[in-house]
Write a structure and sequence with these properties.
Organism: Streptomyces koyangensis
Number of helices: 10
Protein name: ABC transporter permease
Family: Belongs to the binding-protein-dependent transport system permease family.
CATH topology of one domain: MetI-like fold
Order of helices and strands: HHHHHHHHHH
Main location: membrane
GO cellular component, one term: plasma membrane
Protein backbone atom coordinates (compact mmCIF):
# COMPACT_ATOMS: atom_id res chain seq x y z
CA UNK A 1 0.00 0.00 0.00
CA UNK A 2 1.33 3.43 -0.88
CA UNK A 3 0.68 6.56 1.12
CA UNK A 4 -0.24 9.72 -0.72
CA UNK A 5 2.08 12.52 0.28
CA UNK A 6 0.85 15.05 -2.31
CA UNK A 7 -2.67 16.06 -3.21
CA UNK A 8 -4.07 14.77 -6.50
CA UNK A 9 -3.51 16.82 -9.61
CA UNK A 10 -5.96 19.71 -9.70
CA UNK A 11 -6.76 19.59 -5.97
CA UNK A 12 -6.16 22.73 -3.88
CA UNK A 13 -3.13 22.69 -1.64
CA UNK A 14 -3.60 22.50 2.12
CA UNK A 15 -4.13 25.93 3.60
CA UNK A 16 -4.77 27.50 0.21
CA UNK A 17 -7.98 29.52 -0.18
CA UNK A 18 -10.67 27.70 -2.09
CA UNK A 19 -11.16 29.01 -5.59
CA UNK A 20 -14.58 30.08 -6.69
CA UNK A 21 -16.83 33.09 -6.85
CA UNK A 22 -17.34 35.21 -3.79
CA UNK A 23 -21.04 36.10 -3.66
CA UNK A 24 -20.54 39.07 -1.34
CA UNK A 25 -17.95 40.60 -3.65
CA UNK A 26 -20.10 40.04 -6.70
CA UNK A 27 -22.96 41.89 -5.06
CA UNK A 28 -20.89 45.02 -4.50
CA UNK A 29 -21.91 47.76 -6.95
CA UNK A 30 -19.30 48.91 -9.42
CA UNK A 31 -18.08 52.45 -9.89
CA UNK A 32 -20.51 52.97 -12.76
CA UNK A 33 -23.47 51.98 -10.61
CA UNK A 34 -22.36 54.24 -7.77
CA UNK A 35 -21.92 57.16 -10.17
CA UNK A 36 -25.35 56.47 -11.69
CA UNK A 37 -26.97 56.48 -8.25
CA UNK A 38 -25.27 59.78 -7.42
CA UNK A 39 -26.53 61.31 -10.67
CA UNK A 40 -30.07 60.14 -9.90
CA UNK A 41 -29.75 61.53 -6.37
CA UNK A 42 -28.89 64.96 -7.80
CA UNK A 43 -31.79 64.66 -10.25
CA UNK A 44 -34.13 63.78 -7.38
CA UNK A 45 -32.98 66.79 -5.35
CA UNK A 46 -33.46 69.05 -8.38
CA UNK A 47 -36.97 67.71 -8.91
CA UNK A 48 -38.08 67.86 -5.27
CA UNK A 49 -36.18 70.91 -3.98
CA UNK A 50 -35.10 72.99 -6.99
CA UNK A 51 -34.44 76.01 -4.79
CA UNK A 52 -31.40 74.25 -3.32
CA UNK A 53 -29.63 74.19 -6.70
CA UNK A 54 -31.16 77.04 -8.69
CA UNK A 55 -29.85 80.56 -8.14
CA UNK A 56 -32.57 82.42 -10.09
CA UNK A 57 -36.29 82.00 -10.79
CA UNK A 58 -36.65 80.01 -14.03
CA UNK A 59 -38.83 82.65 -15.68
CA UNK A 60 -36.82 85.72 -14.68
CA UNK A 61 -36.17 87.75 -17.85
CA UNK A 62 -33.11 90.00 -18.11
CA UNK A 63 -32.61 91.33 -21.67
CA UNK A 64 -29.33 92.98 -20.68
CA UNK A 65 -27.86 89.57 -19.80
CA UNK A 66 -29.22 87.74 -22.86
CA UNK A 67 -27.06 85.06 -24.53
CA UNK A 68 -24.21 85.25 -22.07
CA UNK A 69 -21.76 82.37 -22.05
CA UNK A 70 -21.08 80.18 -19.02
CA UNK A 71 -19.35 81.90 -16.13
CA UNK A 72 -19.77 84.66 -13.60
CA UNK A 73 -23.18 84.88 -11.98
CA UNK A 74 -24.62 82.48 -14.58
CA UNK A 75 -22.57 79.23 -14.39
CA UNK A 76 -24.22 77.77 -17.52
CA UNK A 77 -24.95 81.07 -19.26
CA UNK A 78 -28.27 82.62 -20.24
CA UNK A 79 -30.77 82.13 -23.05
CA UNK A 80 -32.11 84.57 -25.63
CA UNK A 81 -34.34 86.23 -23.01
CA UNK A 82 -31.64 86.49 -20.37
CA UNK A 83 -33.01 83.61 -18.29
CA UNK A 84 -30.47 81.61 -16.32
CA UNK A 85 -29.87 78.26 -18.06
CA UNK A 86 -28.87 76.42 -14.87
CA UNK A 87 -32.03 77.52 -13.07
CA UNK A 88 -34.21 76.50 -16.01
CA UNK A 89 -32.55 73.08 -16.21
CA UNK A 90 -33.00 72.54 -12.47
CA UNK A 91 -36.63 73.65 -12.49
CA UNK A 92 -37.25 71.69 -15.69
CA UNK A 93 -36.19 68.45 -14.00
CA UNK A 94 -39.55 67.98 -12.31
CA UNK A 95 -41.60 68.42 -15.48
CA UNK A 96 -39.24 66.20 -17.47
CA UNK A 97 -39.53 63.42 -14.88
CA UNK A 98 -43.29 63.85 -14.58
CA UNK A 99 -43.57 63.42 -18.34
CA UNK A 100 -41.32 60.34 -18.38
CA UNK A 101 -42.51 58.61 -15.20
CA UNK A 102 -46.15 59.43 -15.86
CA UNK A 103 -46.00 57.80 -19.27
CA UNK A 104 -44.30 54.73 -17.80
CA UNK A 105 -47.04 54.44 -15.18
CA UNK A 106 -49.67 54.56 -17.93
CA UNK A 107 -47.76 51.88 -19.86
CA UNK A 108 -47.46 49.63 -16.82
CA UNK A 109 -51.12 49.89 -15.82
CA UNK A 110 -52.52 49.53 -19.33
CA UNK A 111 -50.08 46.80 -20.34
CA UNK A 112 -50.55 44.81 -17.13
CA UNK A 113 -54.33 44.91 -17.45
CA UNK A 114 -54.19 43.85 -21.11
CA UNK A 115 -51.71 41.05 -20.41
CA UNK A 116 -53.64 39.63 -17.46
CA UNK A 117 -56.95 39.88 -19.32
CA UNK A 118 -55.40 37.94 -22.20
CA UNK A 119 -54.29 35.15 -19.86
CA UNK A 120 -57.49 34.99 -17.82
CA UNK A 121 -59.97 35.54 -20.65
CA UNK A 122 -59.50 32.34 -22.58
CA UNK A 123 -58.07 31.47 -25.96
CA UNK A 124 -60.24 33.76 -28.10
CA UNK A 125 -59.62 36.87 -26.00
CA UNK A 126 -55.93 36.01 -25.70
CA UNK A 127 -55.64 35.76 -29.48
CA UNK A 128 -57.47 39.06 -29.97
CA UNK A 129 -55.28 40.93 -27.48
CA UNK A 130 -52.09 39.52 -28.95
CA UNK A 131 -53.08 40.44 -32.50
CA UNK A 132 -53.87 43.97 -31.31
CA UNK A 133 -50.45 44.27 -29.69
CA UNK A 134 -48.81 42.93 -32.86
CA UNK A 135 -50.48 45.66 -34.92
CA UNK A 136 -49.51 48.43 -32.49
CA UNK A 137 -45.93 47.19 -32.14
CA UNK A 138 -45.55 47.24 -35.92
CA UNK A 139 -45.38 51.05 -35.66
CA UNK A 140 -42.26 52.75 -34.26
CA UNK A 141 -43.03 53.93 -30.74
CA UNK A 142 -42.32 57.61 -31.37
CA UNK A 143 -44.38 57.60 -34.57
CA UNK A 144 -47.33 56.07 -32.72
CA UNK A 145 -46.95 58.69 -30.00
CA UNK A 146 -46.94 61.43 -32.64
CA UNK A 147 -50.18 60.06 -34.10
CA UNK A 148 -51.84 60.05 -30.68
CA UNK A 149 -50.70 63.61 -29.92
CA UNK A 150 -51.95 64.70 -33.33
CA UNK A 151 -55.40 63.47 -32.32
CA UNK A 152 -55.40 64.69 -28.71
CA UNK A 153 -53.45 67.91 -29.20
CA UNK A 154 -50.21 69.15 -27.57
CA UNK A 155 -49.70 69.38 -23.83
CA UNK A 156 -48.09 67.55 -20.93
CA UNK A 157 -51.00 65.22 -20.16
CA UNK A 158 -51.62 64.33 -23.79
CA UNK A 159 -47.91 63.66 -24.33
CA UNK A 160 -47.90 61.30 -21.34
CA UNK A 161 -50.93 59.45 -22.69
CA UNK A 162 -49.35 59.21 -26.13
CA UNK A 163 -46.02 57.83 -24.91
CA UNK A 164 -47.75 55.50 -22.46
CA UNK A 165 -50.09 54.14 -25.12
CA UNK A 166 -47.20 53.55 -27.51
CA UNK A 167 -45.31 51.42 -24.97
CA UNK A 168 -48.30 49.59 -23.44
CA UNK A 169 -48.26 46.70 -26.01
CA UNK A 170 -44.71 45.74 -25.00
CA UNK A 171 -45.74 45.58 -21.35
CA UNK A 172 -48.84 43.57 -22.27
CA UNK A 173 -46.77 40.93 -24.05
CA UNK A 174 -44.29 40.78 -21.18
CA UNK A 175 -47.02 40.36 -18.55
CA UNK A 176 -48.79 37.73 -20.62
CA UNK A 177 -45.60 35.74 -21.12
CA UNK A 178 -44.64 35.84 -17.44
CA UNK A 179 -48.18 34.99 -16.34
CA UNK A 180 -48.28 31.97 -18.65
CA UNK A 181 -44.96 30.73 -17.27
CA UNK A 182 -46.16 31.10 -13.69
CA UNK A 183 -49.50 29.48 -14.46
CA UNK A 184 -47.76 26.35 -15.76
CA UNK A 185 -45.19 26.18 -12.93
CA UNK A 186 -45.09 23.33 -10.43
CA UNK A 187 -46.36 25.16 -7.36
CA UNK A 188 -49.37 26.54 -9.22
CA UNK A 189 -50.22 23.08 -10.53
CA UNK A 190 -49.91 21.74 -6.99
CA UNK A 191 -52.29 24.42 -5.72
CA UNK A 192 -54.82 23.37 -8.34
CA UNK A 193 -54.49 19.71 -7.35
CA UNK A 194 -55.19 20.68 -3.74
CA UNK A 195 -58.48 22.20 -4.85
CA UNK A 196 -57.62 25.91 -4.88
CA UNK A 197 -60.02 27.82 -7.10
CA UNK A 198 -58.81 29.21 -10.41
CA UNK A 199 -59.44 32.83 -9.41
CA UNK A 200 -57.57 32.36 -6.13
CA UNK A 201 -54.60 30.80 -7.92
CA UNK A 202 -54.59 33.65 -10.43
CA UNK A 203 -54.71 36.42 -7.82
CA UNK A 204 -52.46 34.84 -5.17
CA UNK A 205 -49.81 33.22 -7.36
CA UNK A 206 -49.91 34.26 -11.01
CA UNK A 207 -50.27 38.03 -10.60
CA UNK A 208 -47.71 38.61 -7.78
CA UNK A 209 -45.06 36.41 -9.40
CA UNK A 210 -45.45 38.04 -12.80
CA UNK A 211 -44.90 41.57 -11.48
CA UNK A 212 -41.13 41.58 -10.66
CA UNK A 213 -40.16 41.36 -14.32
CA UNK A 214 -42.63 44.17 -15.11
CA UNK A 215 -41.06 46.46 -12.51
CA UNK A 216 -37.55 45.77 -13.83
CA UNK A 217 -38.66 46.42 -17.42
CA UNK A 218 -40.40 49.61 -16.31
CA UNK A 219 -37.16 50.88 -14.77
CA UNK A 220 -35.22 50.19 -17.95
CA UNK A 221 -37.98 51.72 -20.08
CA UNK A 222 -38.03 54.97 -18.06
CA UNK A 223 -34.97 56.23 -19.92
CA UNK A 224 -36.65 55.66 -23.28
CA UNK A 225 -39.78 57.42 -22.02
CA UNK A 226 -37.77 60.48 -20.99
CA UNK A 227 -36.16 60.62 -24.44
CA UNK A 228 -39.58 60.28 -26.10
CA UNK A 229 -41.01 63.02 -23.88
CA UNK A 230 -38.11 65.35 -24.64
CA UNK A 231 -38.52 64.60 -28.35
CA UNK A 232 -42.20 65.55 -28.29
CA UNK A 233 -41.35 68.70 -26.34
CA UNK A 234 -38.64 69.56 -28.86
CA UNK A 235 -41.26 69.33 -31.61
CA UNK A 236 -43.61 71.60 -29.64
CA UNK A 237 -46.06 68.79 -28.80
CA UNK A 238 -45.24 68.47 -25.10
CA UNK A 239 -45.30 71.07 -22.29
CA UNK A 240 -45.94 74.52 -23.68
CA UNK A 241 -44.02 77.75 -23.05
CA UNK A 242 -43.11 79.28 -20.68
CA UNK A 243 -42.80 75.94 -18.85
CA UNK A 244 -39.23 74.71 -18.31
CA UNK A 245 -38.62 71.27 -19.84
CA UNK A 246 -35.35 69.96 -21.21
CA UNK A 247 -36.60 69.11 -24.70
CA UNK A 248 -38.43 72.42 -24.95
CA UNK A 249 -35.26 74.25 -23.87
CA UNK A 250 -33.35 72.60 -26.71
CA UNK A 251 -36.04 73.67 -29.14
CA UNK A 252 -36.11 77.27 -27.88
CA UNK A 253 -32.35 77.65 -28.01
CA UNK A 254 -31.56 75.90 -31.31
CA UNK A 255 -31.64 79.17 -33.28
CA UNK A 256 -29.15 80.80 -30.91
CA UNK A 257 -26.54 78.05 -30.55
CA UNK A 258 -24.07 80.00 -32.69
CA UNK A 259 -24.28 82.89 -30.22
CA UNK A 260 -24.37 80.84 -27.01
CA UNK A 261 -23.29 77.22 -27.38
CA UNK A 262 -24.54 76.29 -23.91
CA UNK A 263 -28.16 76.48 -25.05
CA UNK A 264 -27.67 73.36 -27.17
CA UNK A 265 -25.29 71.51 -24.88
CA UNK A 266 -26.39 71.70 -21.25
CA UNK A 267 -30.05 70.64 -21.61
CA UNK A 268 -28.87 67.79 -23.84
CA UNK A 269 -26.30 66.76 -21.24
CA UNK A 270 -29.03 66.74 -18.60
CA UNK A 271 -31.13 64.37 -20.71
CA UNK A 272 -28.14 62.16 -21.53
CA UNK A 273 -26.84 61.90 -17.97
CA UNK A 274 -30.27 61.10 -16.55
CA UNK A 275 -31.10 58.48 -19.18
CA UNK A 276 -27.69 56.78 -18.92
CA UNK A 277 -27.94 56.70 -15.11
CA UNK A 278 -31.42 55.18 -15.26
CA UNK A 279 -30.26 52.56 -17.77
CA UNK A 280 -27.27 51.62 -15.60
CA UNK A 281 -29.45 51.20 -12.52
CA UNK A 282 -32.10 49.37 -14.52
CA UNK A 283 -29.53 46.95 -15.93
CA UNK A 284 -28.22 46.34 -12.42
CA UNK A 285 -31.72 45.59 -11.16
CA UNK A 286 -32.39 43.27 -14.08
CA UNK A 287 -29.27 41.24 -13.34
CA UNK A 288 -30.12 41.14 -9.65
CA UNK A 289 -33.66 39.91 -10.18
CA UNK A 290 -32.97 37.53 -13.08
CA UNK A 291 -32.82 34.56 -10.75
CA UNK A 292 -36.06 35.55 -9.02
CA UNK A 293 -38.17 35.80 -12.14
CA UNK A 294 -40.20 32.61 -12.52
CA UNK A 295 -38.87 30.23 -15.15
CA UNK A 296 -41.42 27.46 -14.93
CA UNK A 297 -39.12 24.92 -13.24
CA UNK A 298 -40.54 25.29 -9.74
Amino acid sequence: MTTLTEPPVGAPALGAPLAGPRPAARRLPGAGTVLAVLVLAVVAVAALWPGLLATYPPDRVDPVAALQGPGGTHPLGTDQLGRDVLSRIVHGTRLTLVLGLGSVLISVVAGTVLGLVAVAGGRVLDEAVMRLTDILMAFPGLLLALLVVAVLGPGTTNAMIAIGAAAAPAFARLVRGQALVVRESGYVQAARVLGTSGSSVFLRHVVPNALPSVLVFATVHTGSAIIAGSSLSFLGLGPQAPASEWGAMLSEGRDYVDLSWGLGVFPGLAVTATVVAINVVGTRLRRRFEGRIPDGDH
